[in-house]
Give the backbone structure.
Amino acid sequence: MNTSKALLTWYDCNRRELPWRHTRDPYAIWVSEIMLQQTQVATVIGYYQRWMITFPTITTLAEANLDQVLALWQGLGYYSRARSLHHAAGIIKDELGNVIPHTAAALRKLPGIGAYTSAAIASIAFGEPIAVVDGNVIRVLSRLYDLSDDVTRAATKNKIARLAQELLNNERPGDFNQAMMELGATICTPHSPLCDVCPWQSNAWLLSTALSKIGPSSLHVSNRRITIWLQPFVSWTTVCCWSDVFQKAFWVACGKYPTVNRWQANPTRAA
């Protein structure tokens, strides 16, 4: 099974039931994506449901008073998101005939819609084969491809965007993008990733995945010391270990953990 199909198979069996995943309405998907910016999924669910009852269409949102819109948004924070939604709805109603643009490039021309949100809407609602890239995707792909590059640099972000696009399943781009986000949110988390149940476990670089999985733990030591570059989330690290550490790392990635006695990370390059 190839990499993208493995992820989709996992997603089909394990995805969370979320209200915006039961529709291909571009307006509903747009609202959910804007709400999910900087906000936890659990918080968004109730706001999304109330919003779709109050403003079920672009027209109802465009014709609403801004104060009413902001009142319904109260508690979500980042109120510029609500203002941009209202403004963009007005543009779609008055200038685009109530038709949401079908491509990511066209969507980016609307207020409040950037590269990530435009790709999410276009792929999920319209099936455009364009990959999403945000913090979750950067983390997942950095681990999958064992990238040591500085993810704050534009060149690194462009590299990851290319990798994401190459990995994208063109038959199910919307589901694939949501699967990437789901993997980052539930399995490939910033701390204590669940590598033993990851659908890409066998694809990831075994040593970095394995040792970042066990983190500070305990390993029987011989008198041999080796220094390994653990990327992307563990810095220069000195590990005292058995000479067969690479074999042990393989079994760690498979869910069988050796024991380690010493773990020393450079605090200047923390995860």
